[in-house]
Specification:
Radius of gyration: 14 Å
Distance between the termini: 24 Å
Helix content: under 10%
Strand content: over 45%
Shape: globular
Number of helices: 0
Number of strands: 9
Amino acid sequence: MTRLLVDFPFNALREPRESRPPTDRVIEGDIVCRNWDIDSAKDGAVRAGLWEATPGVNHSIKGETWEFCLILSGLVEITERGQAPKRYGPGDCFIMKPGYVGTWRTIETVRKVWIMA
């Protein structure tokens, strides 16, 4: 039977998938990302998880992806192309819609909950 109620096990996470942004997107720093995939639905079209990144700056390009973010810890500054920078910290939420292009600056190691569709 498929689970229809899924917990986010913040205190019992398995080993993360570690990665780095593509080198052509890195502007500054040696960014290390850790991702914990928590769940997916609709054949992977909707996914949710936990993500962490070390300080640095990179180009952020969403393509066709819609993403909801809830910052749990750390501090980021996100700048949509042609717009003023916005800072987000613990408790802040935002959505990046399909077509979003800008920069993502991690000021303090950040951890966020994400939902993508």
